[in-house]
Amino acid sequence: MKFYLDTANLDEIRLGVESGLLDGVTTNPSLVAKEGKSHYEMLKTICEMVEGPVSAEVLATDAKGMIEEGRELAKIADNIVVKIPIGAEGLKAIKTLSCESIPINTTLIFSPVQALLAAKAGASYVSPFVGRIDDVSQPGMEVVEQIVTIFENYEFECEVLVASVRGPMHVLEAALLGADIATMPFKVFQQLVNHPLTDVGLAKFLEDAKKTPR
């Protein structure tokens, strides 16, 4: 499974890269706005820091605007993935841009049928928002499971990128279901390595080491 950071914070991305475990980054206009820098300038910097894919979201809501913006985003760097929300206009844009060999991450996926449509349109990734689905009292991971099954049934090359991850359990469940990628806040990325028994064991080893003659 690949791990992405869902952030535009350069310090978080730098730490992720230094860990040797970071495979990519997902951003959105809200995350970029928090950093107080130019959208395109920030994306260029992130692409220089990360070898893997960097998802950059369009702001337009109509197909023509999405296509034009997607082409401009793709010029920033070779590892840019254009992020387009699912919808009738979005699907038109996905079809056009994917035919131009521009990789697309279809965002705001809340049902397996939406993911199916995005894959048929040529998307490289679909992003089911599991946390938000959970928030409306529906099992987000059930949607992921259905998407994985559909893609296996029809041998779609589109990857399942689990988004709106709220904690390590979401990452674990996504991995068990065979999702390709989990994108997460930096806090969750840090939590993956932690376990109270590891801390207790390490403290015990250090305590015993102090008692051992050198």
Mean pLDDT: 94
| Spatial separation of the terminal alpha carbons | 43 Å
Quaternary organisation: single chain
Number of helices: 11
Overview of this protein structure:
The chain has eleven helices and eight strands. It is an alpha/beta fold and 214 residues long. It has one domain (2-211): TIM Barrel (Alpha-Beta Barrel). Strands 1-2-3-4-5-6-7-8 form an eight-stranded parallel barrel, surrounded by seven helices. Helix 6 packs parallel to helix 8 (140-154). The longest helix has 16 residues, at 196-211.
Q: Layout of helices and strands, plus pairs?
A:
Layout: E1 2-6, H1 10-19, E2 24-26, H2 29-34, H3 39-49, E3 54-57, H4 63-74, E4 80-85, H5 88-99, E5 104-109, H6 112-121, E6 125-128, H7 130-135, H8 140-154, E7 159-162, H9 168-177, E8 181-184, H10 186-191, H11 196-211
Parallel strand pairs: 1-2, 1-8, 2-3, 3-4, 4-5, 5-6, 6-7, 7-8
Helix pairs in contact: 4-5, 6-8, 8-9
Condensed summary:
The chain is an alpha/beta fold and 214 residues long. The protein contains 11 helices and 8 strands. It is globular and about 75 Å long.
Note the main attributes of this structure.
TIM Barrel, 11 helices, globular, single chain, alpha/beta, 8 strands, 214 residues
